[in-house]
Description:
Helix content is 57%, strand content 3%. By secondary structure, the protein is mainly alpha-helical. It has one domain (2-217). The chain has a two-stranded antiparallel sheet with strand order 1-2. Residues 62, 66, 118, 120-121, 127, 129, 133-134, 137 line the site of iron/sulfur cluster. The site of iron/sulfur cluster has 10 residues, from loops.
Amino acid sequence: MADSTIQLHQVESRLYRLAVDLLATVHDTSGFAATMSAFTDLAENLAGHRPVACKLGCSHCCVLNVSVLLPEAVAIAGWLSMHCVAAACDAQLKRLQSHALRVRWMEDSERIHKQILCPFIDARGGCSIYPVRPLVCRSVTSLDKEACLETLNPDQTEAVQAVQMDTTRKTIMDTAFCTLARAMKQQPMMGRSIELSNGVVAFLADPGLAAVLASGADLPASLWD
Length: 225
Ligand code: SF4
């Protein structure tokens, strides 16, 4: 117990130092993208990889609401801008806007019941933004596919057992999320989280918001209304 406490403290310290150093040099979308790339690389290295039941094409958990920190939303919007052509970009923005409006204020239970999948699921059932996927998504794994199916069954009405997951990965990714939020406030920048599609839409529709965030000014409160 004492050892794991010390190790987690060291993990948090390494992530925090990196985030503070990187965020200090950020001025725009590319700066946030580089920050998130280096930060998630470190978090992934610290989390490591152990066998899990998750496989490409199994997207059962991608009906859960995902919160991202603002640099994550900027990095995803920047990545999408680089990976689509003009007409497809417009269609994607409209699809994301529609999804953001639909899931606003919706609880996980309602999304499970209605099976409202994440708008980033691709035709193979994979994550179309996998290289830049959110920390929250990186934290979730399953050691038991049947338990996932039961827990996320839209027809289940009774409380079910929690799904067993890789708890080391979950702890480190949760720590990375909280540490990044703390580093944001240190800069100072807004450390608020936002629903995934809503945040990505904001930075896709107005790329200038990334510079506003980097400057330390508050983003419009209407993003969270
Ligand atoms: S961003 Fe990717 S991993 Fe996360 S919920 Fe959406 S499709 Fe699933």
